[in-house]
Each structure stands twice: as structure tokens, then as C-alpha cells.
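ENTRY TYPE: paired fold submission
RECORD: A
CONTENT: sequence, then C-alpha cells
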Amino acid sequence: MNQPSHPVLPLPWQTIKTVLLDMDGTLLDLHFDDVFFRQTVPQAYAEKKGIPFADARAEILAVYKSCEGTLAWYDLDHWSRTLEMDIPRLKDRAAHLIAIRPHVVPFLDKLKTQRRPVILVTNAHPYAVALKFKKTGLDAWIDTIFCSHDLGHPKETPGFWQSLKKITGLRPEETLLADDMESILATSQSQGIAFPIHMAFPNSQQPPRFSQRFPSIIDFREIMPP
């Protein structure tokens, strides 16, 4: 297990007015998405094509790679068309794996008690967001939701953050973002987000991977507001 080069120091919560939270790998266990994209979809594709799972998985992963970091990668409609399968229906089939990460609810309760605005910023397709809210009730703690599909840009690109700031009047110097992807944290930081926090343990079935670039935490107990 690699250790973070930038351990988390006490955050200046008196300065932080808005909290931006990623969904998959931050609030929810990424195990669901990893199983879905690496096992559920290739298995269904193998059955559809009548080919071995290993061949189907290799083909699917190559197709994924071609779209990585783009809006299409997160678009369930795009994958339904490309793979000629009902991807939302497959999501429903694996939905029993959707789970809130440990210590998320107490963190959200604290933010709600302190009346700090909580904004969900996600690359997830709106159908996936609705499915995960239905399974977890997570929307009870969320004030506003911004999907990359609504803004027309994935979070990895400056356009997402520029649009977000324009729409919300967000003050980046007073904003915390928690996300499990370093590329997203780096882009948000380049757009002024002052407090990027890396989630080092997004998938409960894999070991933690600490960031060497950003303050990196196992769970929200480490940055719980006083």
C-alpha cells in the first residue's frame, strides 16, 4: 500500500462554504461499477455474440479505451447503441451491488446540520444517478445535482468547471471537492477549487491507493467538520 505524500491536515472548515461530492467511488462503493463494466457487460456481450467471455471482455475493454475521458464513456445511451444491448436494463440486473460507502452518512448528516450546501458533481448518466438514488436514498442529503451530461462536458475537462461556476456562481476559493480520480481533482484545481480531497479507497474489494498529488483519505472520518 503506497502512502500519501500529502497527508491530510485539519481543513479550514471556517473557510469552506460549499462541498462538492463525486458519487461513484466517493459516496458509493465503486465495486458496483467495476463489476458492471468488467463482468456484467462483457458476459452479456459474450452471450449475445456466442463467443467466449475472455474474447468478449478483451473486445469490450478495447472499445472502452477508445472513449476514455470523453462524455461518450459515461453515456449509457451511447453504449446501448454501440454494443446493441440494453445497458440500462443490465444496470438494473446488477443493482443489488449498489452500496453507500462506510462513514458517508455521518459526514452528510454533519454537513446538513451545519447547513453547508452539498452539490453532487458526477459523470454518471442520469439513469444511473436515478437508479442509485432509488437504491440508497442518497438524494435526501443532496441539495443540487450536476451531471456532466447536463453541462455538456466530462469533469476531466475545464469546460465542466467553467459551466458549473457560471451556472451556480460558485466561489472556488471557498469550495471543497472530494473525488476518487486524480485527473478530475487536477482539472478542478486548475479552475480554482481550493480544497481537492482524494478518495483513496473507492472500491471496497480492492486495496487503497493513496494520491501522491492531493490530500488523500480512506473515508470521511478524516475530514469530519467540527
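RECORD: B
CONTENT: sequence, then C-alpha cells
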Amino acid sequence: MGKLIKMSEEVIMSKIYEIRSKKVMIDRDLAELYGVETRVLKQAVRRNLKRFPKDFMFEMTNDEFEN
């Protein structure tokens, strides 16, 4: 994957949201943190699903995304 981008702790904390009673980061923010395109991050996760817990990712509804 790409090179980890330096971000302040405050910036990272501002990118953590509570959705469905879980603290999550949105894929585009994680991709930015790792210095890769969102599609590359998602592809890497899909190719390595066995390395992640079953609840590692989910797709938000439109309502969740708008809120």
C-alpha cells in the first residue's frame, strides 16, 4: 500500500464517527491516511478478507451518509 501520511491526532479524531453504535472511519478518510486511492484500499481489503474481522466494514445507507 501507499505511504502513511502524517496527520495530527486531532485531524484523525475528527474523522471518527459513531454509526450503528460503533466508532468508524469512512473509507475515503482511511485511504487518505494511507496515501492511496479509495478504490485501492477497498480492493486490498476485499483481497484479504480473511485477515479482517467480519464486522470490519459495512456499507452505510443514504440516510446514514447524509447525517
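NOTES ON RECORD B: The chain has a mean pLDDT of 87. The chain has one domain: 1-53.
STATUS: closed
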